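Suppose a classmate hands you a notebook page containing two proteins, each written out with its sequence and a corresponding row of structure tokens. How would you begin to make sense of it? This section walks through that situation. The first entry is reproduced here exactly as it would appear on such a page.
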Amino acid sequence: MNSDLDRLQPYPFERLAALFAGVEPASDRQPVAFSIGEPKHPTPGFIRETVLEHLHGLANYPTTRGDAALREAIAGWLSRRFGLPAGRVDAERQVLPVNGTREALFAFAQTVVERAEDALVLMPNPFYQIYEGAALLAGAQPMYLDCTVDTGFLPDLDAVSAQSWQRCQLFYLCTPGNPSGAVAPEAWLQKLVGLAERYDFVIASDECYSDIYLDEQAPPPGLLGACERMGNTAFERCVVFHSLSKRSNAPGLRSGFVAGDAELLARFLRYRTYHGCSMPPPTQAASARAWSEDEHVRLNRDEYRAKFRAVLDILGPVFDVGAPEGGFYLWPQTPIADTDFARGLYARENVVVLPGRYLSRVNAGTDPGADRVRIALVAPLDECIEGAQRIRRYTETL
């Protein structure tokens, strides 16, 4: 048995279930779930229809590399979205479809980390727990970079010692961030790329929230665009992960991609060929259409903007919280311990939020997730308003 499995910590939602054990929520209120980042907007009809139109593809084995049409649609979207010259992304060598970014983020570490006693994988803190598990099962040690108000909820690159940079093999980044919604500016991204060049490590940028943002005139920058504008036109040491789950409200499609450094992707493709994780043909066809169509994504952003406006009007008087730059989470500080707040809110109002400490680790004696909660505004507008009103009512009694 792989002993590294014993190093994995319970997933946040396992801990949430344990926190709520024995609690009977208010029976006169319908449940409102703000805990899981699962979009509840309808999946666009053209995606569903394309899946049905291509069910005949189930008669064929798909290739791990994916169809050329899908890879070309992805390369085209990357160029449109991040201001890359046409043809800069080589659809043949620099794009690899994956079955959702979760499995790809995990598997990527198994490809690029060379097992060594001093190997480090750096990651933001709080973080998506897949990063930590990937590092541990790749034989590396996670190094947590606290993201707080003082750091703008981004990792403080200047706080990392030269020795730690030398030991770093992989740097996981999430922008817009989960849970804070903080966006890494392009200059910050270029600074990180410069460090990767200097110390020879790989950057894995999780950008699955990059198409959900409040200012239509200021879309979040991405790692490949930052590379392009600093002259790293081959995206050396850099890969990005994108998904249709949030962008197109299609979490059940399990469709995403990895793009960037061709040499890294060649190695990752070899790993995935053995891993056996090809994307089904109907999914590929629907994904190609989704990456080629942007209007449904703009409409999706409009829905999130309406929810943020309504919910912040309600919560503003009781929380010091503002709209995030990107993503669909609120990350407010709580007046009592985050676990007590979440448990009490569930008991009194039948509203579920995620305690911040379930997304973070104690680091140098502090926990950057403690006394915050993550509120995922994924439900329909009326449900978000109802849930916000209950949160305010509960908070005003504390």
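The notebook's second entry, a different protein, reads as follows.
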Amino acid sequence: MEEERIREALNAHWHASAIGDVDAEHAIYEKNAICDYPQSGERILGRANLQALRSHHPGKPSGFRVRRMLGKEDLWITEYTINYLGRPAFTVSIMEFRSGKVVHETQYFADPFEAPAWRTQWVQHIP
């Protein structure tokens, strides 16, 4: 039953993020949540700082699509794409929950790249 509530909370979180509702987007986080961006070496301490950082983003994302969410118990992973400055950013969010709220999130961002022609015989292209 708790996993259903977490999935519902995640759906509400990603929907709010997609439409730019920063209050609803950050309702999922515990007050003292931590968010790590390993690629830039940054750590954001607390829901208020995370919401402020995202609210002041100079190039607000213009599109958002969740590809899939996987989780069990208190560990959930969301794979999604953000359209940022006209380009997709492929993103993975790893969220750790305690008592129904996110206490720690780690986000990874990756730029797209052209697939090399030499491997076309073995691959399919994903949408």
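A careful reader of the second entry would note: Strands lie at 29-37, 42-45, 63-72, 75-84, 87-98, 101-110.
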